[in-house]
Design brief:
51% of the residues are buried. The chain has helices at residues 2-11, 36-50, 54-64, 72-78, 92-95, 98-103, 107-118, 125-142, 147-158, 166-169, 183-192, 196-205, 210-225, 229-236, 241-254. α1 packs parallel to α12, α1 (2-11) runs antiparallel to α13 and α7 (107-118) runs antiparallel to α8 (125-142). 61% of the residues lie in helices and 0% in strands. The chain is mainly α. It is built from 15 helices and no strands. It has a single domain, classed as ADP-ribosylation/Crystallin J1 (ADP-ribosylglycohydrolase fold, Orthogonal Bundle), CATH 1.10.4080.
Length: 257
């Protein structure tokens, strides 16, 4: 979860100003900030920890933080009285799902949690698939699966093409807000990485919807490598107290530091 939030923060300054290199400096820009990706990740954690209806949690947290670059369609839903899902297959389904991968006690429960929180808004099959694939990768990485086994499991279960390399993706990749156009790329960035920072640099370097790609990648990278203390502090220091409380509660239940 913290890995996803760190990716969101790093990517916040590159979403509309892509860099096509891993050598950008500094890793966390002074003006980096959390966006809607972080707010909704917290909301998913709150919903799963406290058995809240996901739509209720999304509207609660979203309205606490109204000025964090909400996507247009979600914003219309968020600030309306509507509570029904709207058939989205946007990558917001995957950017926010990392708590499901941390809290599920087995793979079936992980997918059930993922579907539960995703279907509240993103009930299109591609939205459900993108979230479940991300949560599955997080869970399997926490169980010690290596990159090759993770790749094989996601390909077999979800049918994504994960055969490209980061270097092959980078030149032609463009902004894509769909799950099918960003989840495979984000997973490749995490699976090809040598450590947590390398994963985030991979994600930023391909461009596109940088904060969301890095959030999806970051959740998987955290499960593979952990988050180095200095980077964890860089994210933690940018979060308000109400978000910190939810994160502490989640890690206490998940049994992770």
């Amino acid at each position: 979860m913290l890995g996803a939030i760190f990716g969101d923060i790093v990517g916040s300054v590159y979403e509309w100003n892509n860099v096509k290199t891993k050598d950008f400096q500094p890793l966390v820009a002074p003006r980096a900030f959390f966006t809607d990706d972080t707010v909704l990740t917290i909301a998913v954690a709150d919903a799963l920890l406290n058995d809240r209806p996901p739509a209720e949690a999304f509207k609660d947290w979203g309205r606490r933080y109204p000025n964090v670059s909400w996507g247009g369609r979600f914003a219309r839903w968020l600030f309306s009285d509507e509570t029904a899902p709207y058939g989205s297959f946007g990558n917001g389904a995957a950017m926010r799902v990392s708590p499901a991968g941390l809290l599920g006690r087995d793979l079936a429960e992980v997918v059930r949690f993922s579907d539960h929180v995703t279907a509240a808004t993103h009930d299109h099959p591609e939205g459900l698939k993108g979230a479940a694939a991300t949560a599955t990768a997080i869970f399997l990485a926490r169980q010690g699966a290596g990159a090759d086994d993770l790749r094989a499991a996601v390909i077999e279960t979800y049918g994504y093409d994960l055969t490209a390399t980061v270097d092959a993706i980078r030149p032609g990749y463009r902004f894509d807000e769909t799950c099918q156009g960003s989840v495979p790329q984000a997973l490749i960035c995490a699976l090809e990485a040598t450590d947590f920072e390398d994963a985030i640099r991979n994600a930023i370097s391909i461009g596109g919807d940088s904060d969301t790609v890095a959030a999806i990648c970051g959740g998987v990278a955290e499960a593979r490598f952990g988050v180095p203390e200095a980077l964890a502090e860089a994210a933690w220091s940018r979060l308000p107290a109400d978000m910190r409380r939810v994160m502490k509660a989640l890690y206490a239940v998940a049994g992770a530091g």
